[in-house]
Write a structure and sequence with these properties.
Bound molecules: adenosine-5'-triphosphate, magnesium ion
Structural class: alpha/beta
Radius of gyration: 17 Å
CATH topology: Rossmann fold
CATH class: Alpha Beta
Mean pLDDT: 93
Distance between the termini: 15 Å
């Protein structure tokens, strides 16, 4: 079994000058490559916080998180974010001054993939998310919310790696495009051998997942396996 992610008594507390919020309490779980996981749960239950720990954006305040056997505090998190994990954010975070095509190419070029190869890969994944080439030269503010979301998805998928995290990736899509994205996420798990973890309220996404978990007040439980 390839348990690429293992969390042991994982906790996270947001600490500001005035208050502490224990967003994640005691999460013990593991995730394998080749599977798609859905994480459901009420607003404020800790789902995005959990993803940001998995993404290496925040360090846990309690417990341990192991990525491929190594504790997250001991790995080079910049390298981890560049090479091993891709994130589709709840807000898309497209680069406003880059075209659609350049947005997808950019992370590849950061990794020193040649321009030609970056372009080929970007075109491949833009096609896979169902975006046509009339959009590729446009800036993000010239395309619809659902199209922006698909650019963000193409960008995350094009970079490669072992772990794909997505926070409500189908939130702005109609049911036809939702279906396209659900199928792509499944293929990333089953054919490209990613561990795919998707935060979702969407029944269709959860239904397609191999494992469904629920976050409740900072505690994660498996609902269906
Ligand atoms: N930057 C922050 N500073 C302080 N508290 C925060 C911060 N971000 C989130 N929280 C709090 O942590 C808890 C968990 O938030 P989180 O964003 O993980 O929830 P969520 O399950 O992703 O919710 P949603 O479904 O609305 O996106 C909430 O009580 C939230 O108010
Ligand atoms: Mg959230």
């Amino acid at each position: 079994m390839d348990k690429i992610i293992k969390a042991v008594k994982l906790g996270y507390t947001y600490q500001s000058q005035y208050q502490r919020t224990r967003a994640l309490l005691d999460v013990t779980c593991s995730f394998e490559r080749g599977k798609m996981y859905a994480v459901t749960g009420k607003s404020g239950s800790g789902k995005s916080t959990f993803l940001s720990l998995l993404a290496g954006l925040d360090v846990p305040t309690e417990g341990n998180l192991y990525i491929d056997g190594k504790e997250i505090r001991e790995i080079d998190r910049d390298r981890y974010r560049m090479n091993h994990v891709s994130v589709i954010y709840q807000a898309f975070h497209l680069f406003p001054l880059l075209t659609v095509l350049e947005n997808v190419m950019f992370p590849l070029q950061l990794k020193h993939v040649s321009k030609k190869e970056a372009k080929a890969r970007a075109l491949e994944f833009l096609g896979k998310v169902g975006l046509t080439d009339t959009l590729y030269k446009k800036m993000p503010n010239m395309i619809s919310g659902g199209e922006q979301q698909r650019v963000a998805i193409a960008r995350a998928m094009a970079v490669g790696g072992q772990i794909l995290l997505a926070d409500e990736p189908t939130g702005n899509l109609d049911s036809q495009n939702e279906q396209v994205i659900v199928e792509l996420l499944c293929r990333m798990a089953h054919e490209e051998n990613y561990a795919v973890i998707v935060v979702t309220h969407n029944e269709q996404v959860a239904g397609a997942a191999d494992v469904v978990c629920r976050m409740m007040d900072g505690v994660l439980e498996v609902v269906r396996e």
